From TrEMBL:
Domain Intradiol ring-cleavage dioxygenases: 32-169
Organism of derivation: Actinomadura viridis
A Pfam family reported for this protein in Swiss-Prot or TrEMBL: Dioxygenase_C
Organism ancestry: Bacteria, Bacillati, Actinomycetota, Actinomycetes, Streptosporangiales
Keyword Oxidoreductase: yes
Name of the protein in its database record: Protocatechuate 3,4-dioxygenase alpha subunit
Main enzyme class: oxidoreductase
Annotated family: Belongs to the intradiol ring-cleavage dioxygenase family.
One Gene Ontology MF term: protocatechuate 3,4-dioxygenase activity
EC number(s) from the headed UniProt entry: 1.13.11.3
CDD domains: 3_4-PCD_alpha
Top-level lineage group: Bacteria
Keywords, comma-separated and alphabetical: Dioxygenase, Oxidoreductase
Keyword field contains Oxidoreductase: yes
Length: 178
């Protein structure tokens, strides 16, 4: 007898989102940037009960491997962030712009957990100013040219990076299979 599959979410606000989750670095930290966006469904409506996680290297291209990474115990950068979406599907992170690793352009790995999904979906956020590095990035160069824009953040008037994620439909974000 097989057990029926379960979808991911909705999420309960106990223990998964945590107070410092969106702060990969302190908001006032040197070199801190803001990344924000919205999670949207196939009709373009906000998904108010999703959970977004980010994983990334630091500004020197190193991935943190020390204890206390989830809460930045004394070292200022965790490499990991988690944010629940608000009623408008919005999320935000304060982080550092990562350096590229190997032949990769600088990117942030993004996971989205949302209702209706059997597993989280994985994507990457690339930075708009790194166009030369985009051309050489092994993953991004394999994405059809007309879809690459769904992996590149934009800039808001205040300098923050904007990365909206469309789960399906027209303009669907490119998701990665592992």
């Amino acid at each position: 007898m097989t057990t029926p599959s379960q979808t991911v979410g909705p999420f309960f606000g106990h223990a998964l989102p945590y107070e410092a989750g969106p702060e990969v670095v302190p908001v006032t930290g040197a070199g801190a940037i803001t990344v924000r966006g919205r999670i949207l469904d196939g009709a373009g409506a906000p998904v108010p009960d999703a959970l977004v996680e980010t994983w990334q290297a630091d500004a020197a291209g190193e991935i943190p491997r020390r204890p206390g990474g989830l809460v930045r115990r004394g070292h200022g950068f965790s490499g990991f962030g988690r944010c629940a979406t608000d009623a408008a599907g919005g999320y935000w992170f304060t982080t550092l712009k990562p350096a590229g690793i190997g032949g990769d352009a600088p990117y942030i790995a993004v996971l989205v957990f949302a209702r209706g999904l059997l597993r989280p979906v994985f994507t990457r956020l690339y930075f708009p100013e790194d166009t030369a590095a985009h051309a050489a990035d092994p993953l991004l160069s394999r994405v059809p040219a007309e879809r690459r824009g769904t992996l590149v953040a934009g800039r808001d008037a205040d300098g923050a990076y904007r990365f909206d994620i469309r789960l399906q439909g027209e303009g669907e974000t490119v998701f990665l299979a592992f």
